[in-house]
Design goal:
Shape: globular
CATH topology of the largest domain: Serine Threonine Protein Phosphatase 5, Tetratricopeptide repeat
Number of helices: 9
Number of strands: 0
C-alpha cells in the first residue's frame, strides 16, 4: 500500500521540480537560441554594427566637443538651421541618450522627424528610419525603390552611396 502512495508523490515532486527549475534562476533562453540556426551569426552582426555606430558617435562627439545633453541640442539646432535634418535628428537622439529626461530633446527630435517626413518622400523617410535603427539592408532596399520611382531624387542617390560605402 505504501508503494501506491509513493508513485503519485514522486510524480508530483518531479513536476514541481520541472516547474520550479526555471524560476530558480536557470536560463532556458540560451538553450532555445542554440537550437535555432543562424541566431549567433545575427547577434554577432548586430554587435559589430552597434560597435561601428558607437564608434561613429564617439568620433562625431569628439569633433563637436559635446559634454552634455544641451551641447548635443545646440549641435542639432545648428544642423537643422543648415537644412541638414538627418544630422539634426542624430544629435537630438544623442541628447536623449545622454539625458533621457530632457523634454526639449524629445520635442526637437519629434519635430525634426516630422519635418523630415513632410519634406521627403515616404520611401526615403522609411529608409532613414530603418537606417537609424541599424537595419542597413532594409534602408538600402527602400532607397533603391525610391530611386526607381523618382530617378531625379539626388538626395536618395547620395544617401544610398553613403550607406553602401560604410
Amino acid at each position: 500500500m505504501q508503494r501506491q502512495n509513493t508513485i503519485p508523490l514522486m510524480i508530483s515532486l518531479l513536476l514541481i521540480g520541472l516547474l520550479v527549475g526555471p524560476a530558480v534562476g536557470e536560463d532556458t533562453t540560451i538553450v532555445i537560441k542554440q537550437d535555432q540556426t543562424g541566431v549567433a551569426d545575427e547577434v554577432n552582426k548586430m554587435k559589430d554594427f552597434d560597435f561601428e555606430l558607437q564608434q561613429r558617435e564617439r568620433d562625431r562627439i569628439k569633433s563637436w566637443q559635446i559634454e552634455d545633453s544641451t551641447d548635443a541640442l545646440k549641435v542639432g539646432d545648428t544642423y537643422l538651421k543648415q537644412g541638414e535634418i538627418e544630422d539634426a535628428i542624430f544629435f537630438y537622439q544623442l541628447a536623449i541618450k545622454i539625458d533621457p529626461a530632457n523634454p526639449a530633446a524629445h520635442e526637437k527630435y519629434l519635430a525634426a522627424r516630422d519635418t523630415e517626413q513632410e519634406t521627403t518622400s515616404a520611401r526615403y523617410h522609411q529608409a532613414m528610419e530603418y537606417y537609424r535603427k541599424g537595419m542597413k539592408e532594409k534602408a538600402i532596399d527602400e532607397l533603391v525603390l525610391e530611386i526607381k520611382e523618382n530617378p531625379d531624387n539626388e538626395r536618395a542617390r547620395i544617401k544610398l552611396n553613403e550607406i553602401e560605402s560604410e
